[in-house]
Design brief:
Elements (H helix, E strand, L loop, with lengths): L2 E7 L4 H11 L5 E8 L5 H8 L4 E3 L8 H14 L4 E4 L8 H7 L3 E5 L11 H7 L4 E8 L9 E8 L6 H24 L3 E4 L2 E4 L2 E2 L3 E4 L3
Parallel strand pairs: 1-2, 1-4, 2-3, 4-5, 7-11
Antiparallel strand pairs: 5-6, 6-7, 8-9, 9-10
Helix pairs in contact: 1-6
The chain binds 5-O-phosphono-beta-D-ribofuranosylamine.
The site of 5-O-phosphono-beta-D-ribofuranosylamine has 15 residues, from α1, β5 and α6.
């Protein structure tokens, strides 16, 4: 049976779109049951509406703590009847209860080669450090930020003189390849998170590496 999953966004939603396309062409045996955003003005919401996907906005209210917000978010996800939650540019730190409830069924895409460059402004920081290699990581989410088991990475060589916008665009192209692949494995029952490790077909993922084609 096709895996029902929810996608959480805050912005453009290009990864959400990549996931949706993969459900349509069979790379993911699943369907997006809801696109949920913390921002009513997230551009990705219109993309989702255009695709006929149910959208829900769970905007934080003033003075709302992380726990109270997390409970409302959990309610929205529960009503979508999702069996997997895919974070795709969702710019809020999830509260502990939410992460625990969804542990092993909660994936994120991060724009860096974790464990390097957790947090924000990853491209800028990688360029400033003169990194030769950069990319993105799909990982299971654990309580510690950007620290969960890595499933798959898209890797590229930073080009001489490349600026942040150019690097970001190249990393995003890799994101749109590796995220559908990870969700496709999960939907096929091939990907699990056990003992703090991501397993694919019974082997530690490692993570799997996809190199940019040049
Ligand atoms: C991506 O770069 C992802 O790595 C990061 O947020 C960005 C979301 O982009 N977590 P989009 O909204 O999917 O276009």
């Amino acid at each position: 049976m096709a895996l029902p999953f929810a996608v959480l966004i805050s912005g453009r939603g290009s990864n959400m779109l990549a996931l949706e396309r993969a459900t349509r062409d069979g790379r993911i045996d699943g369907r997006i049951t809801a696109v949920i955003s913390d921002r009513a003005d997230a551009a990705g919401l219109d993309v989702a509406r255009g695709l006929g996907i149910a959208v829900t906005v769970v905007a934080p209210t003033p003075d709302e703590g992380r726990g109270a917000y997390g409970r409302r978010l959990a309610d929205a996800v529960a009503s979508s009847e999702a069996a997997l939650v895919a974070l795709a540019g969702f710019m809020r730190i999830l509260d502990t209860d939410f992460v625990r409830a969804w542990q092993g069924r909660l994936l994120n895409i991060h724009p860096a080669l974790l464990p390097a460059y957790r947090g924000l402004h990853t491209h800028r920081r990688a360029l400033a450090a003169g990194e030769a290699r950069h990319g993105c990581t799909v990982h299971f989410v654990v309580e510690e930020l950007d620290a969960g088991p890595a499933v798959i990475q898209g890797r590229l060589a930073v080009r001489p003189g490349e600026d942040e916008a150019a690097l970001s665009a190249r990393v995003q192209r890799l994101e749109h390849i590796v995220y559908p692949r990870a969700v496709g494995w999960f939907a096929a029952g091939r990907l699990q998170c056990r003992d703090g490790v991501a397993w694919i077909d019974g082997h530690p993922a490692g993570p799997v590496v996809v190199e940019e084609e040049v």
